[in-house]
Amino acid sequence: MLRLASCLALAVTLVAAPLAYAQSEEDVMANIENIHGDAEGFFEVFGGLQDAMMFDNPDAIADYVLLPITIDANGETYDIDNQQDLVDNLDTLIQDAPREAIRTQDVADLIVTSEGVGFNGGAVWVSNICLDDACNETKWGIIAINN
Questions:
Q1: Helix, strand, coil: what percent of the chain each, to 5?
Q2: What is the pTM assigned to this prediction?
Q3: Confidence category of residue 23, pLDDT binned at 50, 70, 90
Q4: Residue 119 sits in which domain range?
Q5: Rounded distance, CA 100 to CA 2, Å?
Q6: 3-class SS at 65?
Q7: CATH number at residue 98
Q8: Partner residues linked to 72 by β-bridges
Q9: Do the domain assignments include residue 37?
Q10: Is residue 53 part of a domain?
Q11: Contact 115, 125 (CB under 8 A)
Q12: Is residue 14 domain-resident?
């Protein structure tokens, strides 16, 4: 009987565990603010990037990519250091999976680490980078695309 009770307790714990680790949009925003700062700036980029992907606007998409960037796609590595190269080759550089990851990303499912904010398990990473030595001025943008 004790063994059955222990098994039931373990089963309840395993079923309830994902609920304990679920995060709200507020939790995500707080994590972004605590780790990277400027959570509002992230959410401006988040919304703009989703719109750019939804409306398939290459120029707007390229505006959210922090250059230079190295992108692996189609079994090749591309070093992109200017926006026009990115725009001209966008269909090759950003394939369907990362585009869909951005279009359909739910805020509560974002991954927030010290490296950045991951979309769809890491298909796309966005980070807040310093634009000056004192890091008084920062900018959010895409730092990695995993095709």
A1: 50, 20, 25
A2: 0.81
A3: confident
A4: 23-145
A5: 49
A6: strand
A7: 3.10.450
A8: 77, 146
A9: yes
A10: yes
A11: yes
A12: no
